[in-house]
Structure formats: C-alpha cells, structure tokens
Hints:
About 35% of the residues lie in helices and about 15% in strands. With about 350 residues, it is α+β, with helices and mostly antiparallel strands. The strands form two sheets. A seven-stranded mixed beta sheet has the order 1-2-3-10-4-5-6, sandwiched between helices. The longest helix has 19 residues, at about 95-110.
Amino acid sequence: MSVSTEVSPIPADVLTRFVADVFRSQGVRTEDADSVAHLMVEADVGGYGTHGVFRLRQYLARLRDGGCNPTPKRQVVSETAATALIDGDNGLGHLAMRAACNLAMAKASDVGIGWVGIRRGNHAGPLALYVRPQADAGMIGMAAAVGSANHVPPFGGTDLLLGTNPIAFSAPSNDADPFLLDMASTVAAMGKIKVLAQRGELMPEGWMVGKDGAPLTDPTRRGDGFLLPIGGTKGFGLSVAIGLLAGVLNGAAFGADVVDFTSDTESETNTGQFVMALDISAFGDKAAFTRTVSRVFDEFRASPPLPGHDTVRLPGEGKTAAAAARRARGLDLNPGLRKELDKIAQETGVPGPFVDTA
C-alpha cells in the first residue's frame, strides 16, 4: 500500500462497518458487534475521540486474552418499579450500558424515575452516549462509572486506589443543544493523555504529578505518576461517592479490587456503572421547564466575558451542529490512530477502512 501525506476523512458508516467486522472476527455476535461499533463511532462523531474507536485495540486485547466475554448472556438480577440491577456477564461494556439506559428511560416513563445499576460490565466509552437519549426524550439523565483502572491516590496518599470515575448529566432545553456535561473526576481523563502520547505531544502542567509531587508532562511516563482530582479534596470526595453508587452498591469493583483493563487483559474487571432517567413531568410542566432552562442559559451567555475569555458557553453547546458536520464530512482520525487501525485490519484479516488519496 502506498503512503500518502494527504488523507481524506473517513465516512462514519465505513468506519462503523469496519469496527463491526473486526468484532465479528473475534467471535462477537453480529447484533452485538453492530451495536458496539455504532456506539463507538457515535462517540467520535460526538467529539469524544478519546473514548471512541481509539479504544478498539484495548477491547480486542481483552477479547483475545479472555478478559471479556464475546457472547454474554446479560440479565436483570433484581428489579423494582423504579430500579434494576443488570449483570453484564463480562461482555463488551456498551451492551450493558445501552440496556441500562433503555430500561431506565422505560421506568421513568412509567413511574417518573428509573435508576439502573450494572455489575460485571466493562469500559463503555463516553457516558454522554447514555445520557443524551434522556435529554432528546425530554427527560433528565445521569450516569456514572467506576474507572477501568486506578490512576489516583486518595487525597494526601500515594496508593493508587481510585480511577477517573466519570459522571455525566443531561437536561432538555429549547435551544439547539441540550445541557450535556460529561466529565472525569480528575483534571484530565486518562484517554486524553493516551491520545497525546499517540500524537507525540506533551501534557499541560496540572494534569499529573510524579511520585515526588513534581509536575509530570510527558504522557509516555504516565505510569510514573498520579492523575490529580478536580478541586483537590472535592474531586476526591466526588470520586468516592461515584465509587459507592456505581461500584459498591452494585456489587462491582471499587478501590483495590479494580482491575486495570489495559495491563491485565485476562481478568474480569467487574466494572460498575449506573444510568438514571428522570421524567420532568413528574415534577411539573415539561414545557415550562425547558422555557426556563433556555431563559437562564441566555442570561448566562449574555454575561460580559472577563478579559481574555470567550463568550460564555454551556456544557454541550454546539455539539449537535459539530456532530452533523462530522457525519456529513467524515471523521478526521489522527495518523497514529489510522496506523493502528490498519494494523488491526492486517491482524484480523478484515479489509482496512482507509483508501489512499495519492
């Protein structure tokens, strides 16, 4: 294959077919392969590139080495009118999270709220995938997860006992975009640091410190230091709270029980997550809620910016238009990721997704 310095964006549907075919080559059921591939590419379309197709190599390593079950028999192991607990049977994490999102929304439609926990799950991409549907349906959404590896010590300590433990919220408005916040409880997600390493770029100071407490900026040395929690003790406390709700409550891993899903590709991770959906109409008029949200957001945007700052923007603002543009134009994947996907194609015997432009 010739090497070109010019590369064209890859259409989302082409990338989805490639990822699904790769999963099928590893024994994943056709329906499951299609679902996970769709969600992974949707992460890239939505602007969450650190948690999209970039993760394919990690998922394949776990499927190859027995750490992830290619043919899970997912089941609801306990349930009430408003709650449920799903056992993901150690399958690809997107499958259990998608099921949890759908079930939470169904329960919210019936009784006003749905809260669905997951045990024996796996890494499932960005939480935005599992709260945006609630906002699109006129509901409030929330989701959280115990991180898939421990990169953070308890505040003031040195033992790695916490992950990035992300949390996400969504709410509808009358604007082009719903409110959509998807954040790690650390200053930066580990995925962003891995992408910088793939690109050969440095980290900003303040993301990580070395074991001597000095700033660490080389992403290839991420194993030599600690991720920092947002807001110091506040981020530490938030991370612990997420661990209790997404991990301990569900009978999933937390603390020293967490398995590093990258370095250990043979052990079950027992990753814990939860998804919540809240029906706004259970509290009042849904139209009044969205009108008020839009009015308040307009007030925020009208606030004169501080010197050196751009106009105020809300979490999630502009994402709908940006996703539509990516879907229409195709996805620009960095050279390192394109090279990795070509390697995966060669290793699995699946035709690669790229066509040279030279």
